[in-house]
Design brief:
By secondary structure, this protein is mostly beta strands. The protein has helices at residues 2-15, 158-165; strands spanning 31-40, 46-54, 59-66, 73-75, 85-87, 93-97, 100-106, 108-115, 125-135, 139-149, 169-170, 178-185, 190-197, 205-210, 216-218, 222-226, 229-238, 252-257, 261-265, 268-269. Pfam families: DsbD_N (PF11412).
C-alpha cells in the first residue's frame, strides 16, 4: 500500500503544480465551454451536448482518465424539468506523457447528453457546473458554470452527430464472443484478469477496466493478445483501505484500438 500511496502522490504533484488554481479563470484562456442543441428525438427526449474547445496542444480527460488525469464531474443541480440524464462518451485517445499513460481528448471534447424530461412537452433547462482537468506542459484543474435552455425546435447538430458516431461499438457489434474475469486477492486489494475473445480492434489495443463502484480504483491495465483472446489485467484498490467485494456484472471494460473502440459491460467468472 505504501508504494501505491507514493505513486498516487507523484501523480497528484504532476497534475497540480505549484501556483495552479482550480478556478475557471485559470483555464479560461485555454478552454471554451458551450452547450449545443440537438432538438427532440423520436422518443420524446431532448438531445444536447457539452462542448469543450481546447487551445492548441491542450488535452482533457475521459471518464476513466488513467493514473494522471482528472475525470470530468458534472453537477446538474439547478436544472429544471430534468429526469434521467444519459451521457454518450465518444471513444477517447490514449496519451503517453513523461512515461505516464492517460486517456482523453485533444482539440475538443463533445459529450452528447440525452435528457428525459420530468414533464414531456415542457421546456428543459440545463444549469450546473462541470469540473475538469486540462493538460499541456502542466496540468490544470478548472471549473465552469453553465445555464442553457434547450431548444426543442433545433435540428440535428453536426458536432453532436459526429460525437455519437465516434462512440465505441457494443460487444455484440464488435463480435465479442465471450468475456470472463478471474479475481484473486492481493496484499492491497484484488487482482483482475479479463479474458476477452474478440476480433482485434487494431494493431495496438489498450484495455481500460472500470470497477463499477465509485470507491474503487483500478491501476493501469496491462494488455496483451494471445490469438483470438485479449488479456487485460489490473489491480483494484478500495480508496478507504478496507476490504471489499467485486460484482462482475458491474465491471466495464473498454478496448481502445487503432481501428475502433469496444464497450464491454460485465464479465462472467473466469
Amino acid at each position: 500500500m505504501l508504494n501505491l500511496l507514493k505513486k498516487a502522490s507523484a501523480v497528484l504533484l504532476f497534475c497540480l503544480p505549484l501556483g495552479t488554481t482550480a478556478s475557471a479563470g485559470g483555464v479560461g484562456d485555454v478552454v471554451k465551454l458551450d452547450i449545443l442543441d440537438g432538438g427532440l428525438t423520436s422518443r420524446g427526449t431532448y438531445l444536447g451536448a457539452i462542448r469543450m474547445t481546447l487551445a492548441d496542444g491542450w488535452k482533457t480527460y475521459w471518464r476513466a482518465p488513467g493514473e494522471a488525469g482528472i475525470p470530468p464531474q458534472i453537477d446538474w443541480r439547478g436544472s429544471r424539468n430534468v429526469g434521467e440524464v444519459s451521457i454518450i462518451w465518444p471513444a477517447p485517445h490514449v496519451f503517453d506523457q513523461n512515461g505516464i499513460r492517460s486517456v482523453g481528448y485533444k482539440g475538443q471534447m463533445v459529450l452528447p447528453v440525452e435528457i428525459t424530461p420530468v414533464n414531456p412537452g415542457q421546456p428543459v433547462r440545463l444549469k450546473g457546473e462541470i469540473d475538469f482537468g486540462v493538460c499541456k506542459d502542466i496540468c490544470v484543474p478548472g471549473s465552469f458554470d453553465f445555464d442553457h435552455k434547450l431548444d426543442a425546435a433545433a435540428g440535428p447538430h453536426p458536432a453532436i452527430a459526429a460525437a455519437m458516431a465516434q462512440r465505441p461499438y457494443s460487444a455484440r457489434e464488435a463480435g465479442v464472443v465471450s468475456a470472463s474475469c478471474r479475481l484473486k486477492p492481493t496484499q492491497d486489494g484484488i487482482q483482475i484478469e479479463a479474458h476477452l475473445t474478440m476480433p482485434p480492434a487494431g494493431d495496438e489495443e489498450v484495455a481500460v477496466i472500470e470497477p463499477g463502484a465509485p470507491e474503487l480504483w483500478a491501476s493501469e491495465t496491462r494488455t496483451r493478445r494471445q490469438g483470438n483472446t485479449l488479456i487485460a489485467s489490473s489491480e483494484l484498490i478500495n480508496a478507504s483501505g478496507s476490504t471489499f467485494a467485486v460484482d462482475r456484472s458491474d465491471i466495464r471494460i473498454t478496448v481502445l484500438g487503432t481501428k475502433h473502440a469496444v464497450d464491454i459491460r460485465g464479465c462472467a467468472a473466469g
